[in-house]
Write a structure and sequence with these properties.
7 strands, globular, 21% helix, 163 residues, alpha+beta
Amino acid sequence: MSDTLDILENITYDELNEGDTATFVRTLSEDELVLFAAVSGDANPVHLDPEYAAGSIFGERVAHGMWSGALISAALATVMPGPGTVYLEQSLSFKRPVKLNDTVTVKLTVSRKGPKNRVVFRCEVTNQNNQKVVTGEARVIAPTEKISVYRPPLPNITIEGHD
């Protein structure tokens, strides 16, 4: 396929400027929630058991906080700076829960550039109501060489043994 969505192109250290922004959008589906629990091993019932979650402070099932963290990682790896980025550090502050079928937007903003191709990004994740769900800061080593690669294909995954 020659669709531009299948191409990942990075933004090199030299091309990044303070204040530059990029976004990454994802919707939390039932399958995604269950798959994240399976992959991470985090089977907290607030994520998986509707009856238990109904009695929690959230009143319903919510995403794992680190699901939003994983989306920040995906944004850094595929959007800005993109392929070739080395993730060094991440701080996260969880502001409100992400609920099933919420559509969240990760916004990355270049805060500052440092020596040795280090870049600090302000990270903000908001839901479809423009409410902040996660804020934080990421530190990366930005790529120095411009590359454009095809997005690697990911396997189709089916869930068995889940209602």
